[in-house]
Design brief:
The chain is an all-alpha fold and about 160 residues long. The chain folds into 2 domains: about 60 residues, no CATH class; about 80 residues, no CATH class. It is built from 7 helices and no strands. The longest helix has 23 residues. The chain is elongated, with a radius of gyration of 19 Å.
Length: about 160
């Protein structure tokens, strides 16, 4: 079972991921591509202010799960991949995969492939990948892949938390 990370552990993990992004191209280039000063990037790296990785995760936590999932799906598509939500049981994953595949088949049955059709196909592929994971890991839903569950910041009036994802 996933255990929530303390705020400090979460911030450190987010900062390390952000540091990886910055170091991959250098502070000056990263800052310029983000429209920031190098001072701002260095403040984020030092933890003096939240970095974009932490802000993305916090914004997903503050949103409804389906909206957060849609945003994650968009981010993954922009990065050349796709978002696969952790499945529940094998039965749930099977039902979802059949539903999504049927919708994809219906969408492309006219021989045309529009943007909405592409989305239906992506959702079917994601559902099939979720089914595969459910079969690999059984009904326990536990996988060996790392996942991070974080407590919302205490200062937030809305202590919504995105589950799954």
């Amino acid at each position: 079972m996933n255990t929530p990370l303390e705020h400090d552990e979460f911030s450190a993990a987010a900062t390390n991921r952000f540091r990886d992004l910055v170091e991959s191209v250098g502070v000056k280039r990263f800052a310029a591509s983000m429209g920031l000063s190098t001072r701002q990037v260095n403040r984020m790296l030092s933890g003096a202010q939240p970095n974009p990785v932490e802000r993305i995760i916090r914004s997903l936590q503050a949103s409804q799960t389906d909206v957060g999932d849609a945003v994650l799906s968009y981010i993954c598509q922009e990065a050349g991949g796709h978002f696969v939500k952790e499945p529940g049981t094998i039965t749930e994953a099977s039902v979802n995969a059949v539903k999504e595949c049927a919708e994809a088949i219906a969408a492309i049955s006219d021989g045309e492939l529009s943007k909405p059709d592409e989305q239906e196909v992506r959702e079917a592929i994601s559902a099939l990948a979720g089914l595969l994971r459910a079969v690999q890991y059984g009904d326990s839903g536990e996988s060996t892949s790392p996942s991070v569950v974080v407590r919302p910041q205490q200062s937030s009036a809305n202590s919504a938390r995105v589950a799954g994802g």
